[in-house]
Design brief:
phosphoribosylamine-glycine ligase activity, PurM_cligase, ATP binding, purine biosynthesis
Length: 266
């Protein structure tokens, strides 16, 4: 439930919009009241973290459409922002700084691959993720971070040129959404901490880091792009909010036929 709200709210936030309300849709073959209550409880918690209202929703029973215990979940968020304050990346320029905010883990993206790797690895939910003291069940089911408080706090006082929610498509597909054709995001891969689960997935799935960054957030759930002076003011503020954040790259001039996201692994 929290993940459902997070995917919608974080996408509103990147435009500078304040989340107003959320509606959900829950469908199943036969309603399990306890299960539905648990899921809706997660949605309520996600709305609480977002500062938005759960305005309503729909619950549908469709016998024959779902296997026993299966259910489908959808929802959407409406936010509001004054026209002049819309954050669309149009002012991003060479020399701007890219700030990455820590994710809590996988953020409900790439799970088709995660399930395949998990099943083929032979581990169980009670096994400990290498390099941590947490179980696979705990790590793989950690809810997505909702960045509403951080974004609202920063935007109240500091100018932000562009924001990116790192979801499906990872770095390579999401960051170009806020870049003009004339610039490129130069990312330094070793500038932030990579949660151990991503190392495990890379090794078990026989993947490269570029492949991982095309699928997963690899530790960065949200990105802000701003000028140098503002970036220097932002980082201490994130620390005061107990939010891990790093300077992970810069905006450079794009050469002809150059990709808009380049990641260095030095």
């Amino acid at each position: 439930g929290i993940d459902l709200v997070a995917m919608s709210v974080n996408d509103c936030l990147v435009l500078g919009a304040k989340p107003l309300f959320f509606l959900d849709y829950f469908s199943c073959g036969e309603l399990d009241v306890d299960l539905a209550a648990t899921v809706v409880g997660g949605i309520v918690e996600g709305c609480r973290q977002s500062g938005c209202t759960l305005l309503g929703g729909e619950t549908a029973e469709m016998p024959g459409m779902y296997a026993k215990g299966d259910y489908d979940l959808a929802g959407f968020c409406v936010g509001i922002v004054d026209g002049p304050r819309i954050v669309d990346g149009s002012t991003i320029s060479v020399g701007d700084v890219i700030i990455g905010l820590a994710s809590s883990g996988l953020h409900s993206n790439g799970y088709s691959l995660v399930r395949k790797i998990y099943e083929e690895s032979g581990v169980t939910g009670d096994d400990i993720v290498p390099g941590t003291d947490r179980t696979f069940a705990d790590v793989l089911l950690t809810p997505t971070v909702i960045y509403a408080d951080q974004v609202k706090s920063i935007m109240r006082d500091l100018p932000i040129k562009g924001m990116v929610h790192i979801t499906g498509g990872g770095f390579y597909d999401n960051i170009p959404r806020v870049l003009s054709p004339s610039v490129c995001a130069n990312i330094r891969f070793n500038s932030w901490e990579h949660p151990a689960i991503f190392d495990w997935l890379k090794e078990q799935g026989n993947l490269t880091w570029p492949e991982m960054l095309q699928i997963f957030n690899c530790g960065i759930g949200y990105i802000m792009i701003t000028d140098r002076a503002t970036a220097d003011d932002m980082l201490p503020r994130f620390k005061s909010m107990k939010t891990e954040a790093w300077e992970i790259g810069t905006i450079v001039r794009r050469k002809e036929h150059q990709e808009q996201v380049e990641i260095s692994f030095d």
